[in-house]
Amino acid sequence: MKKYDKIVTNAVGREVPTIINGEEHIPFQGVGKYKPTGRKFAPRISSCADFPDDGNKQINSLKEALIKSGLKDGMTISTHHHFRNGDLIANQIFDIAHELGVKNLRWYPSASFPCQEHLIQYLEDGTINRIEGSMNGPLGRFASLGKMKGLGILRSHGGRYQAIQDGEVQIDIAVIAAPTADPFGNANGVNGDAACGLLGFALGDSEYADKVIVVTDNLVPFPAIPWQIHGNYVDYVVKVDKVGLPEKIVSGTTQITKSPDRLLIAEITAQFCEEAGLIYDGFSYQAGAGGTALSIGNYFGDILRKNNWKASFIRAGSNKYPVKLLEDGIVKYILDGQTFDLEGIRSMRENPGHINTSPFTSYNYHGKGNFAAMVDIVVLGATEVDVNFNANVVTHSDGYLLHGIGGWQNTLFGKTTIMPIPLFRDRIPVIRDEVTTICAPGEMIDVVVTERGIAINPLRKDLIEKTKDSGLPIKTIQELKAEAEAICGVPEKPNLSDEIIAVIKWVDGTVIDSVRKVIED
Amino acid sequence: MKKYDKIVTNAVGREVPTIINGEEHIPFQGVGKYKPTGRKFAPRISSCADFPDDGNKQINSLKEALIKSGLKDGMTISTHHHFRNGDLIANQIFDIAHELGVKNLRWYPSASFPCQEHLIQYLEDGTINRIEGSMNGPLGRFASLGKMKGLGILRSHGGRYQAIQDGEVQIDIAVIAAPTADPFGNANGVNGDAACGLLGFALGDSEYADKVIVVTDNLVPFPAIPWQIHGNYVDYVVKVDKVGLPEKIVSGTTQITKSPDRLLIAEITAQFCEEAGLIYDGFSYQAGAGGTALSIGNYFGDILRKNNWKASFIRAGSNKYPVKLLEDGIVKYILDGQTFDLEGIRSMRENPGHINTSPFTSYNYHGKGNFAAMVDIVVLGATEVDVNFNANVVTHSDGYLLHGIGGWQNTLFGKTTIMPIPLFRDRIPVIRDEVTTICAPGEMIDVVVTERGIAINPLRKDLIEKTKDSGLPIKTIQELKAEAEAICGVPEKPNLSDEIIAVIKWVDGTVIDSVRKVIED
Fold first, then answer.
1. Is residue B513 domain-resident?
2. In this predicted model, what pLDDT tens digit does every residue of A195-204 receive, in sequence order?
3. Is residue A511 part of a domain?
4. Which residues of B touch A57 (CB under 8 A)?
5. Long-range contacts of A272-276 (CB under 8 A, 24+ apart)
């Protein structure tokens, strides 16, 4: 089977394959242009007659559960990244597959992390054909060098749910690692030694996968409350000694920045939002977990306090900073998609206003609306932005695929999207003539904030008008680019082959760009 | 179109049609015998591009929402009974349909109530072809006299979810009356003037219906928390002045019985459970809302207190009695499917251990297990039981169809099912040679408790053994029947035509019995 075939030029001018790993895919047609006409994926109907009368679905080992689930060549196996770099289960699954001599699996993680570098051997020996999902760090580097047998497909969190819901990806076996579960399969992430907050990334898998295995190190009597995952979707429950490493679950990126440049960017961003009238009593924002975004959230908090206002909600990625705002009564709700530190987990367990959300509620573009569009201010990073405001979040300027999309594409549907980015990183300018990889078309990005000025997308005449007399350093994006190049020089193009190693999906399942193989020096 | 055709004799010896309202149905084959082979119903894929960017789905009126939803002849319209006899919306829907000249609708309520007697005119004039759902009171009497144009189909709460999930009933428009909702369509039953506790009966409709309309009298800003109904499934939101009559939402049946006979039955039932060793630290039970069941629940509470035990959970129908046990720490959780009084509603709003469940979690037989099977003791009523322990809950001994099935069939899958019933009602014996309508085969009923003795199903040798020296009045069911007939005489058979007016579904979607037309005196 060819990895890809039938290349066309899509609506953002990028060449993308329409046959990927032997299946047909649709090229990007513009935001909101592609209208699905089909029906959702229809899972097999089960019968209680085939499940234990006493509700106890416990199986002795993950291996036994995988065998009972019918693990065989060519299947699609899904895992999830709520333990981030502390996951212990994904590696075990493919160790078992390898031991059983199973080949050609599609691994469909919600994201992969460096702790799964172990799986490179199975990508090499054909146990795993390809990864469809984020490839952070070493797995991305492996793929970038053209070493993966199949073609990678990167989807946003919402796009991953959409692909499952629409039957584009049919999961044979979903393995859900859970900090707490009962023998029926009800599971949550708020309790247990490996508590990680929530299990929303696994929701779609639980609903649509043919077989669902819950693995936990904290088996409690029925009912496990809350049931973030419904046992009614679960086939087998496996108790293990340790499901995740708590010390690696908590991300290292949940401290506000100490860099003077980034603090400046954060401050300018908050000022811009205030001057543009984007912050008001009842406004909402999306808070990222990076140092700059956290600082911006704190500035937003200050502005709310100063005016005696309340935010109606924060869409998060939660950690101690939004939790403090919630507990101080400065925001009414945290609508949380992923907890990033222990305070986030504690708050989700304790605070009725700290709400468990999922890629379905927040991000699925093939639903009857989603939450992302209702957010007033969305603050996001990017590896590159170009003079047409197109943005890249997956590849570096050297062409290596080192990051996943996460919820990034999905949150862009918020009312105002702001990218606070440094003008250059390691003396490489961030604003380019053309981004290496288009992850979002320029129309979705409203404002770029750097330490040397703010560029507003010409489409947002309202923002330009509102801030023209603000005294803020408003510039064109071309001016910002020129300033960076005056300091760092004009950047070199990455050394790329024509060969495609992965594609990037838009939120509606269409292909927005291709990622090329990197030619090593 | 013939109302029914192709009658066969099913596994409990009842004659049932296999063509009903022009569609094929499967006769009952025995408990756990019918294995579904197909796939779940696949709803149309939506796109956020077709929904408002700001998430506001508000429409001016129910009429406009129904027109926008494409209301037309022959459609299936669903409603729900969480307001019980205080519902104000179902009548309006069909007033609008009548006004628009729409004909031949299938009404698919989770239950109908006397407050919907208003709809008889539309059953007569052909606006509504038939009711598929409980027909309590006047609507049942209307159907019993053969006046409904189509054939009625009665399903349990779990069977209703199953029929939706499996695509047996495809809902065109679901109208969900909600005590609280936001403009996106997130909705709950815990807040607002018409608070009714929960909206679980509408869950399946929200997930699978083509169009979903939420009607509320308490529109709150996004996000309405908790979202018992996800706005991501909702097409339109309508604000009305009054969605339900709170004073009629609360059922009149939530007082413990004062009848000495029924109190005796309750006491004997509790004693039986204690003697049989069914009550232990960590046990669970299903509490009904009837006076006898409530008394039994209180006796269970006494036994728990006496032994310093805790129940792990009560499956409910909640009201002030289970809530008291929860708040006293005698039970850990109430897994609630329907709140029956204001205390139940308050508790669901306030107590983290008072959990919102649905027919999906608790009752769906075509899931990977459900909660009902995990309950230790299930206490249920019946209109009739026969000497083979077959039980009837929908028709009276005069043949009139006056009750729905509710969760009754579903809860029978609990570990021990006990029916505390009076030996006779209005001098009509309750234990018969043959029940008028089989709603459950005898193998599902373990114990019948009357004021004059207890009959244990011969299949439950363990219970017979455990209670043989208990001093309890254990008798055969034939003995109990004979005692009743000695007092009241042998009851007359109901005066029934051969004509079938409705069928009763088993939990797996198969047809377990037919209901015949009553010949009026």
1. no
2. 999 999 999 9
3. no
4. 368-369
5. A272/A418, A272/A447, A272/A449, A272/A454, A272/A467, A272/A470, A272/A472, A273/A300, A273/A303, A273/A377, A273/A416, A273/A418, A274/A303, A275/A466, A275/A467, A275/A470, A275/A472, A276/A416, A276/A463, A276/A466, A276/A467, A276/A470
